[in-house]
Amino acid sequence: MTKAEITGPFLKRLRVSTEIDEEDERAINSLPIVSKRMANGEPIASLGDRPTACCLVIDGFVLRSKIVGNGQRQVLSFHQPGDVPDLQSLFLHVMDHDVTALGNCLLGFIPHDPLRELLKRRPSVAQALWRDTLTDAAIFREWICNIGQRDAASRVAHLVLELYARLKAIGRTDGLSFSFPATQALVADATGISVVHMNRVVQELRSQGLLDFDRGRISIRDEARLRKTADFDGLYLHLNPSL
């Protein structure tokens, strides 16, 4: 696999939301990145770990989660190609949550020291990653609103539209459908509902002609009505660098 193939999803995502030049891209391509294939459910970084490299999602999906005292799991976020889900490990040395492969995926591990040096040399790249961190925080805020104030059908619809918007921005959708290997149980853990309730919600949304959720693929059937159900406004994703 060439370096361009490894960094391609990352550069494509950065271009969606920030302005980087050719020198920035060359600097990113000069990073020593080790690619590794991970199997579904394989831990990438665990609570209490002290990573020495950040992981870049090249292909597939990754999730962040935390197990609470009663053994229940809260899914904190889903990550797609181009994301660096443990970027915080550059400066927060101990992991406070788990990062796990969602389906089979290909990751690129970037050692911390060369990445820190690049950020010193290329302030525009540092600014891009800082903006990425702020966008991450905005998404967390929206997830809090989603779990705390929306009903179950709206929560699931909102998550689907968020995934669709982010994947569409990097060219990873096929019309109104996209690949997403999460089980209904994982989506339930991300939206704060039970698996039984999640199954009922999926049936409800399907019967209303809004979406299909089946076999690792989600298909939106009526985007306008799904947006209304979800109370969805994608501004918080900050996909337009001019705004």
TrEMBL record:
What residues form the membrane-spanning segments? Answer: none
Q: Which InterPro entries match?
A: cNMP-bd_dom (IPR000595), cNMP-bd_dom_sf (IPR018490), Env_Response_Regulators (IPR050397), HTH_CRP (IPR012318), RmlC-like_jellyroll (IPR014710), WH-like_DNA-bd_sf (IPR036388), WH_DNA-bd_sf (IPR036390)
Q: GO CC: one term?
A: cytosol
The keyword Transcription regulation is assigned to this record: yes
Q: What Pfam families does its record include?
A: cNMP_binding, HTH_Crp_2
Q: Which GO terms describe its molecular function?
A: DNA binding; DNA-binding transcription factor activity
Q: Which domain of life is it from?
A: Bacteria
Q: Where is the HTH crp-type domain?
A: 150-224
Q: Which UniProt keywords apply?
A: DNA-binding, Transcription, Transcription regulation
Classification via PANTHER family: CRP FAMILY TRANSCRIPTIONAL REGULATORY PROTEIN, DNA-BINDING TRANSCRIPTIONAL DUAL REGULATOR CRP
Report the protein name in the record: Crp/Fnr family transcriptional regulator
Which organism encodes this protein? Bradyrhizobium japonicum
- Provide the organism lineage as a comma list: Bacteria, Pseudomonadati, Pseudomonadota, Alphaproteobacteria, Hyphomicrobiales
